[in-house]
Amino acid sequence: MSDSIHTSHKPHADHDHDHDHGHEEKHDHASHAHSCCSSTAGPSVIKLSATPTVGARLSSFRIEAMDCPTEQTLIQNKLGKLAGVQQLEFNLINRVLVVTHDLPSTDPIVAAIKSLGMQADPLQTGADADAPLPPAPKKHWWPLAVSGVGALAAEVLHFTGAAPTWVIALVALVSIFSGGLTTYKKGWIALKNLNLNINALMSIAVTGALLIGQWPEAAMVMFLFTVAELIEAKSLDRARNAISGLMQMAPDKATVQQADGTWLEREVKDVEPGAIVRVKPGERIGLDGEVVAGSSSIDQAPITGESLPVEKTVGDKVFAGTINQAGSLEFRVTAAANNSTLARIILAVEQAQGARAPTQRFVDSFSKIYTPVVFLLALAVAIIPPLFMGEAWFDWIYRALVLLVVACPCALVISTPVTIVSGLAAAARKGILVKGGVYLESGHKLDFLALDKTGTITHGKPVQTDYLPLDPLHTESAVLLAASLASRSDHPVSMAVANAAVDKNLTLRTVDNFTALAGRGVRGDIDGKVYHLGNHRLIEELGLCSPALEEKLFALEEQGKTVILLIDSAGPMALFAVADTVKQTSREAIRELHALGVKTLMLTGDNPHTANAIAAQVGIDQAQGNLLPEDKLKAIEALYAQSHHVGMVGDGINDAPALARAEIGFAMAAAGTDTAIETADVALMDDDLRKIPAFIRLSRDTASILKQNIALALVIKAIFLAVTFMGLATMWMAVFADMGVSLLVVFNGLRLVRK
Known about the structure:
Layout: H1 29-32, E1 45-47, E2 57-62, H2 69-80, E3 85-91, E4 96-101, H3 107-114, E5 121-122, H4 142-160, H5 165-179, H6 181-192, H7 198-211, H8 215-247, E6 253-257, E7 263-267, E8 276-279, E9 289-294, E10 296-299, H9 301-304, E11 310-312, E12 317-318, E13 323-324, E14 329-333, H10 341-351, H11 358-389, H12 393-407, H13 410-429, E15 432-434, H14 437-442, E16 448-452, E17 463-469, H15 477-486, H16 492-503, E18 512-517, E19 521-526, E20 529-534, H17 536-541, H18 547-557, E21 562-568, E22 571-579, H19 584-595, E23 599-603, H20 608-618, E24 622-624, H21 629-641, E25 646-650, H22 656-661, E26 664-668, H23 674-679, E27 682-684, H24 691-725, H25 731-750
Parallel strand pairs: 16-23, 16-25, 23-24, 25-26, 26-27
Antiparallel strand pairs: 1-3, 2-4, 2-5, 3-4, 6-7, 6-8, 8-14, 9-12, 9-14, 10-11, 10-13, 15-27, 17-22, 18-19, 19-20, 20-21, 21-22
Helix pairs in contact: 4-5, 4-8, 5-8, 6-7, 7-8, 7-12, 8-10, 8-13, 8-25, 11-12, 11-13, 12-24, 12-25, 13-24, 13-25, 15-16, 24-25
C-alpha cells in the first residue's frame, strides 16, 4: 500500500492520485451515485491534528462507493474518531482516499470504512500501481425489473380493487425488497451515524408510507428512486470520464532500443529516462522526450489544443499523448511515464477540484443547514396539526413523508462539482490548464488584463538590428566585449547580441565576477577591467547619460527597438539595438479580449518608446515601460485601486510578483514547463494568447450554468414545498420533482464538456 515515511505533507502535490488498481469489486457503483445530499462537502484535505507526528505515513485507498460529499462526510466523521489518524485527503473523482496516520497497520482504517458499508482497497506501490481497474461486474437487471413490475402491479390492483389489501401489500413488499434493500442498508448506516442523507430520508419516507398503509405508493417511490439513481450514476460517470479520457491518450507500450541496438516493445511505465524510443507514422507517442533522429509533423492537440500539426526535428521536444503524423522519429526519453507533461496535466486537473469554487462553497454551507431544518419541519408537519388543530393524523403524516422526499438538496449539491469538473476537462482539451474551480468560476469577472511583452506578446527571440560605436578606439573590440558579457546571460536581448557575434565567428573572452543586475543589465570583469552591458536605466544610475546620447537612444526606441549599451569606467563605448517580432496570435487575442469587454495593459522592463510602439502594433490599450518586478506589482495594485478585476500574463521570474498578486495568473507554459504547470493559476500549454479569451468565455459559460442550476433547484424546491403544504402532492410526484431536477442540473452542467 502507498505507505511512506511522512514529515510534511503538501495537500495537493506530494503524491499522485491517478492510480487505478485491480481488486474484487463488491459494490454496485450505481447504488452509491446519488447520495450526494444533506452533508456539506468538506475540503479535499481534512487536518485532524496540527502537525503530523514523527514516523507518520501515508496510506492510499480506493473506495468505489465514495462518489459524493455524503460518503466523504460519513468517512470523515468515522475516521476522525480513530486514534492515530492525523489527516484525510479525498479525491472523489478517482474515489481515492489518502490517510496520514501513525497506526501500526491499516486494518483499523479498513475496518472503520467497512462499518459504513464501503470497501477500502489499499493501493499498491510498484509495478502494479498503474494497472487499470478491470471492468466493474455488471449488476443483474432482473431485481430492478421485478421491482418495477411489482410496483406497477400493486398500483393496478389497488386502483381496480381486483385483490384484497393483503395481496397488494405482499406485491408491494416484493417490489420494495427486490429494488430497495441497498437503499435501506445505506439509510440505516447513515441514521446510526446521525447523518440525514437521501438514503436515510427515503428509507424513513417509504417505511412511513408502509405504516400508514400506502402500499402501492411506497413501492412506486422506491422503484422510481432506484431508477433515478441508476440514471444519475451514468450521468456522473460522464463527468468522471472526461478526466479519465485524458489518461487514455498515451499508449501503454513503446518501441525501445536495447543495449545491443535491437528494438523491443515495452510497457511505457517501465521505460526509464534516457532510453531511446522509436515511433512510426500514425502512432501515438507514449513518453515525453527530445528528438535525436528523423523529422515529422506531430499533432499536439491533446496537450496544447493546437489545431494544426507542428513540425519536429532533431532537438525538438515531443510529448506523451501526441500523435506522430508523417515521418519516423527517434527520441530520448526525458521523463518517466508518471511524470510526463500529460500525467502532470491530469494530476493538476484532478487536484483542481480541491480549490472549491465560491458557488460550491456556498452550496455546501447552505445544504448543511437546509436539510436538518426541513427534517424538523417535516416532524412538525406530522405532529402539530393533528395534536393542536384537530386535523387528521393520516393526511398530515402523509404530507410530512412527501416533505421528507422533497427535502434533500441533491440538485444543488451535485450540480456544482459536475459543472466545475466538466469545465476543467473542457479547458484541458483546449490546452488550458486551470489549477482550481475557484479560478474557472472567477475568470468571468476579469475586466483588465496585464501582459508581459517579451515572450508573451512577442516571440521572445529578438535579433540585433543596429550597432553604433560611440568610441572610435573600440569599434571592433566593443562587439567582442559586449558579446562576451551577453553570452553569460539568458535574457532574450542579451542572447540576440551574443548570437550576432556567433554569426561573425568571434572568439569570446573570459568573463570574471559576472553579475546580473535585475531590470538593468549585467556586469563583469574582462582582463581585469569592469564592464557593464545594460539599458537606459543603468546608464542613468551610473551617471553617464547625456543629451546627445539620449537623442541616439530615443531615435532607435521610437522605432520599437530595444537599446543596450556597453560601458567601461570611461563611459559608453557602443550601443546595440535589438528588435523582437510580434506574434500574429497576440493581435488576434487582443481583438478578442476587447470584444469581451476586457481592457489590456502591457508591462515591460523595456523602454517606454518600445513599449508604446509594440502596444500600438498589437492594439493594447495602455503600455508602461522601464519596469522592475516590483513596479509591475505596483501597476497591478493600481488597477485594483480603481476597482478592476485583474489578470496577469507572464513567462518569467520577473513576472512572479505580479502573477501572484493578480486574481488569476496566466503562465505561458511552453508545453511542459514544470514551474508553470505547478505554480500558475492557469497555464497556456502552447503560449498562444488566444487561449485567454477562450478561457474567459468558458468561465462565463461555467458561471452562467452554475447560476441556472441554483435558480432551477431552488425555484422547483420552493414550488413543491408549497404544493406539499397544500396537500396536492403525492410521494411519487415528490420523487419525480427531486430526481428530475437533479438530472436536469447534471445534464446542464455536462454541456460544458462539449465547449
